[in-house]
Amino acid sequence: MNGITPLVRPPASETNFYKYIAMLDPDIDRQELKATLREEHGVSLSGEVYASPLHHQPVFTGLHDGSFTVAEDVCRRHVCLPIHSDMTRDEAAHVVASLRAVLGPVD
């Protein structure tokens, strides 16, 4: 799908799908995407793992030198797609269709 890439699970690892994280392309505004999905499609993307990187948290002020560009990029671009233990196929299909409607069709 254009504009979004699921986080790839490292080899020899397993997931419990507590979160389903995907990365938005750099040119996509996360807040705008979330608002459009919520307001126009009834899909809520909430629960980002980190809304801002740890080195931006007040408790860590003065404990680091420089910036952490990868952490800053991940925090700016990641989203957590809806997932829960009793999610139906229809609900999952609605999330995917909504993402396609907002982000555009697959190339």
Word description of this protein:
This protein has helices at 30-41, 69-77, 89-103, and strands at residues 4-6, 20-24, 78-81. Strands 1-2-3 form a three-stranded antiparallel β-sheet. The model has no long low-confidence stretch (mean pLDDT 90). It is globular. It has three helices and three strands; from the N terminus they run ββααβα. Helix 1 packs across helix 3 (89-103). The chain is of the alpha+beta class and 107 residues long. The protein starts with a strand and ends with a helix. It has one domain: Aspartate Aminotransferase, domain 1.
CATH architecture: Alpha-Beta Complex
Uncertain runs? none
Tell me the name of the CATH homologous superfamily. Answer: Aspartate Aminotransferase, domain 1
Could you say what the CATH topology is called? Aspartate Aminotransferase, domain 1
Backbone structural class: alpha+beta
The percentage of residues in β strands lies in: 5-15%
Number of strands: 3
Please report the distance between the alpha carbons of the first and last residues. Answer: 7 Å
**Total tally of structural domains:** 1
Helix percent reads 25-40%
H/E order of the elements? EEHHEH
Task: Report the mean per-residue pLDDT as an integer.
Answer: 90
CATH class: Alpha Beta
